[in-house]
Amino acid sequence: MSPTFRALSVRNYRVYATGSLISNTGTWMQNTAQAWLILVLTGSGTALGVTVALQLLPTLLLSAYGGVLADRFDKRTVLRIMQVAMAVPAAVLGLLAVTGLVQAWHVYVLALVFGVGRALEAPSRQAFVPEMVGPDVLGNAVALNSASFNAGRLVGPGLAGLMIAALGGGVVGTGWVIVINAATYAASFWALQALDAGRLTPTPVIGRGRGAVREGVRYVRSRPDLVLVLTCVFFLGGFGMNFQITSALMATEEFGRGASEYGLLGSLLAIGSLTGALLAARRAVPRIRLVVLSGLVFSVVQVASGLMPTYVTYAVVLPLIGVTVLTMATTANAYIQSTVTPAMRGRVAALYIMVFIGSVPFVAPGVGWVGEAFGARAAVVGTGVAAGAGVLLTTLWYLARHRESRSAVRELAPTLGWRHAAGTHVRARRPAGHGLRLRRGLREHERVGPRHDRDAAHRR
């Protein structure tokens, strides 16, 4: 089997991935139909923004508690319950639309309820993957999850648009699309039910008690490598995931294009995202250096996109942005899943989701303000510079902190030109033009976290 899809050789993961792909496609169908529904009902862009915010807000507020659920209960059971919890509001909204009874406040309330279910489900979904596959294909499995999400992102909106148009383009058409999404959760539920329990490796659950969320935060703070990864995710999520704003500004204000050209930009970005996830799937072991380097490359490409002279040249650059963002996100997720203590996996996954998705609402208003006050190009270039500066400064902090310890100096030897022998550090001769190479330093640093966990497990 191709290295890109080697996790599919595991029967349990293959079944799980099939259900997830169907469910992801349905979710993107509903996102499109729900947006069209609220616009048909209100004709207001503000109402659309409120709907999106209500659906995303629980991710920021409740993901940490979803992480506690993932660590405290059987993840497979949590996932099955949450499939029902997300199917019910989708079914209710779809039926209200099909019968013509739907009102805007129905959309608001049910979007919020749906968001609560997704916020509580996501950490268990992230942390469940290591229970299905071994460490040798874990990174590949995580990357294929991202590929599945982006495949649904490519197919779902198009299917939803065709269905809505075929059914008249009104409220009833959106309702049938949303009802179909409710039905797709049955596929995900069936896949979870069909897994061979004997081939799963469940993580021991934690006991009841207060302070589980704080314990997860303390664990991350004790792991500088995780702090580095999550901080990079924050900057790339906050400044790199505002494509709806930056692409809309560039398409309409800078290039004077319409809705169809704006939609094409979204498709090009999704193609790049899918490509990035598949490229990450080919890597056997997730590396911190790839998180950092993809973040820095994103910064450069984002700045370049803001300087493109025409709509066509801007569109050509967008797939590269999708590749870099998804390479970073997928590698970061795989690194977290493969290096954290199993008992902490759900809570750390929840923090990953919070900083990646929850950072968007914090930064988005500022990006919109910059675009309105200084122009679309300033918003695009500014997000690229901010993301790159955040990743670079965090990486320098990480290297500086580890340089203080003896083991860190030994691990930094390839970068700084030191030789380590018999407990001493001797300065090696540096070749001409040799500068600080973050990539080589991080190659050794990325093993710090996993080793710390193994040492801690040995002491226990």
Automatic annotation (TrEMBL):
Annotated Gene3D superfamilies: MFS general substrate transporter like domains
Transmembrane segments: 226-250, 262-281, 288-308, 314-336, 348-370, 376-400
Main location: membrane
Compositional bias per record (Basic and acidic residues), positions renumbered to this chain: 441-460
Localisation: Cell membrane
Residue stretches of biased makeup (Basic residues): 429-440
Residue ranges, annotated region (Disordered): 429-460
InterPro entries listed in its UniProt record: MFS_dom, MFS_trans_sf, TM_effector
Presence of keyword Transmembrane: yes
Domain Major facilitator superfamily (MFS) profile: 12-406
This protein's name: MFS transporter
Species name: Aeromicrobium halocynthiae
Phylogenetic classification of the source organism: Bacteria, Bacillati, Actinomycetota, Actinomycetes, Propionibacteriales
